[in-house]
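Curious: why this fold?
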Amino acid sequence: MAAGLVLAVGLGVSTQVSAQASVHAPAKASTAAPQSVSGTSGQAVTRVADFYGAYVDAKGDYTDPDVTLATALRKHYLTPDFAKRLAAWEKKNGADGVLRAQNVPARWTVTDNGAAGNGHEVIVTLTFGSGETTQKTKLFVLVERYNHIVDIETTSAR
């Protein structure tokens, strides 16, 4: 578990890009630029991107989801108070509180939304499904105390 957490926390989103790049796919001509992910240590948007990237990866393996890693990520990134509130929300709603859904998104984006109160708000847009049957959910993630997530809502705190 510790090794998995260190890998997920230490490499975060960059691990996903490497893993995606290693998947063998038929070669096709593309004019798109190579994919790149970057971040800054201590920056709220990078921290939230690292968390969501690793969390979705841990939850997203339908044949063998890594529940232990998902739990460790929550413990590392969420404040204890918020973790308790999130557990109550999940019990009431029958869904994963981090994703606000019962399933795992196919894609996600993370965008800075600026200062909010004593913290910083980051917008996470989750895309579920594929092709013409996609649904997007926008979440507002508040990062405060010591760069920990203190709230995830469907409306902005700003």
Observations:
- The helical segments are 2-22, 44-60, 67-77, 80-93.
- The first strand starts at residue 107 and ends at 116.
- DSSP finds four helices and four strands in the chain.
- Residues 30 and 93 are 43 Å apart (CA to CA).
